[in-house]
Amino acid sequence: MGPAIIIGNPTSGQRGSPKLLERCAEQLRSRLGSVELWFTEYPGHARELAAAAGDTLVVAAGGDGTVNEVVNGLSPGATLGIIPLGTANVLAQELGIPLDPEAACERIAERRHAVMDLGVATDARGDSRLFACMAGIGFDARVVQAVDPEMKHRLGKAAFILTAVRLYLTGYFPPCRLHIERDGGYEKVVEEVRLAVLANVTHYGGPFRVSSRADLMRSGELDLVVMERITSLLRPDILIPFMARLPLDLSVRSFDITRARAESMDGRVIPVQLDGEPWGNLPMTFDVRAGALRVFR
What we know:
The mean pLDDT is about 90. By secondary structure, this protein is of the alpha+beta class. Helix 2 (about 45-55) packs across helix 3, helix 6 (about 140-145) crosses helix 8 (about 155-170) and helix 7 (about 150-155) crosses helix 8. It has 9 helices and 18 strands. It is globular.
């Protein structure tokens, strides 16, 4: 294996900076030996850098979006490390990685690894993209799509809440239809869905929880959480438990799945987000790749 590579987003979240990334690189050099620091310069660059890193330890230093790009570029023999610097840091929380950068570096230096599942989304053209945390369809994706980057950098998680409220008050959310499969069979059709989350993890947006059953460690399944009405999010029996950090799937319908197809019911555009970043529109198919990623935790 070659030197460890840190792929760092210097503008990630409210903490990312070149100086912080340099300190992380120096800390890892003192523990691991040869470490190189590569900065991202534009959207999609982290994926390109990960592909160029080869079969080595590749550390994604940034938020869930940076991690997603790195995961999509990793060579088959590479191992992922994470220094969480983003707004939500969902995957880091799920893996038990400290949110403090120095503590996260120490965790990487311990070289304790696990093997985890990944989700994969495939659009109508046949283009595919992996996701580590979740795919969101409908309202969830529209919020991600509409958040102003400057507001996100300045306000963090609050930017998503404010954007969600604005969209809820002004928007119409067209319905989608879901075809659900499990173990190659058991097809169930769910219609009139305004929000759907295909979760590989339990956390959502940082401290909140979308699922009680999702397990990214080789479960080979996703937890599909569906909501037919956006107004249901404001019902006390749903909103209060969710704000108290109880899983959303305890209050609304959910399914353990191995594959799902989603399509618009009325021909209107319905967006999709993967790991907190916009990625295309329906129709789309979602699958699981069991044990696809080796990661330090």
